[in-house]
């Protein structure tokens, strides 16, 4: 991505200087594994983190140069989403886009949806209209999943912002309300629709990045979508992929819906709820 000269968003809350001591007891590599388990499976790892020594204590931590740069990068990417969705809301919906705040944190934090350690890694909380990001997740993506490159990381941020777009449009609330009355299998299917739509909306965002994209950027996003598919991750974990348990979609679905958004540049093309084929 060509981010030189791109403004930084003012909608960033950086909590990374306030690490919780409990999670640190796992060690850096161990923590990343735990966070990844929670992020990709939805398992609440709060008890594991809270059982670590000193879980209720923590002091100021000096950010490394790499962490500082990750914060600048996230802020600039967030700014691009603000510009893109402000234009789209005005053009397509005749509405004013209200951007989310992006909370940068280290290891654990609190959100309007509860402890961040329970949802781990990047996630969006509609209750407080904030996207939460532990920037250490980028290292996990690169080192453990092979999802390298700045646009791979940008795609993750854009995906969480896309959930806020769904929230602003009333889609997320309606979908989650419907899920509450469904069986687990049907609820999971609606969850897949939500996630695939966010992938598609991320593609729409990418299609509007005039002068910012570099050769290979879109391939990085597609490669990331592939390695975070439910079937890929379950197989990687040594499990037989079980479609009824999928909550985000297969690798093929996630790649295809991102490309759909990118090639069309049209949010209307992202209607996963009405699609004949997910």
Question: Any overview of this molecule?
Answer:
Strand 5 and strand 6 form a beta hairpin. About 9% of the residues have low confidence. The relative contact order is 0.13. This protein is 53% helix and 7% strand. The chain is an alpha/beta fold and 278 residues long. The strands form 2 sheets. The protein has a 4-stranded mixed sheet. The radius of gyration is 18 Å and the shape is globular. Helix 7 runs antiparallel to helix 8 and helix 8 runs parallel beside helix 11.
Low-pLDDT runs of 5+ residues are 21-31, 43-57
Classification by helices and strands: alpha/beta
Largest sheet: 4 strands, mixed
The topology string of helices and strands comes to EHHHHEEEEEHHHHHHH
Shape: globular
Helix content: 40-55%
Range of strand content: 5-15%
Mean of residue pLDDT values: 87
Strand order of the largest sheet: 1-2-6-5
What is this entry, summarized?
The protein is of the alpha/beta class.
């Amino acid at each position: 991505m060509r981010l030189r000269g791109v403004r930084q968003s003012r909608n960033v809350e950086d909590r990374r200087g306030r690490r919780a001591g409990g999670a640190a007891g796992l060690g850096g590599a161990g923590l990343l594994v735990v966070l990844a388990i929670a992020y990709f499976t939805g398992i609440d790892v709060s008890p594991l983190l809270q059982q670590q020594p000193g879980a209720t204590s923590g002091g100021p931590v000096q950010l490394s140069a790499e962490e500082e740069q990750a914060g600048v990068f996230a802020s600039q990417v967030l700014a691009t989403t603000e510009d893109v969705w402000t234009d789209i809301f005005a053009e397509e919906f005749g509405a004013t886009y209200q951007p989310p705040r992006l909370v940068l944190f280290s290891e654990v934090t609190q959100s309007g949806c509860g402890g961040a350690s329970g949802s781990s890694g990047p996630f969006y909380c509609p209750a407080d209209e904030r996207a939460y990001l532990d920037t250490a997740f980028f290292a996990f993506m690169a080192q453990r999943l092979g999802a390298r490159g700045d646009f791979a990381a940008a795609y993750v941020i854009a995906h969480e912002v896309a959930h806020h777009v769904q929230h602003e449009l009333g889609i997320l609330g309606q979908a989650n309300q419907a899920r509450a009355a469904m069986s687990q299998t049907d609820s999971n299917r609606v969850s897949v629709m939500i996630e695939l739509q966010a992938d598609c909306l991320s593609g729409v965002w990418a299609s509007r990045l005039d002068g910012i994209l570099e050769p290979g950027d879109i391939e990085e996003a597609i490669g990331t979508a592939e390695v975070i598919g439910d079937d890929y991750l379950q197989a990687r974990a040594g499990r037989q992929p079980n479609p009824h348990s999928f909550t985000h979609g297969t690798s093929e679905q996630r790649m295809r819906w991102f490309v759909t958004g990118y090639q069309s540049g049209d949010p209307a093309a992202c209607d996963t709820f009405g699609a004949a084929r997910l």
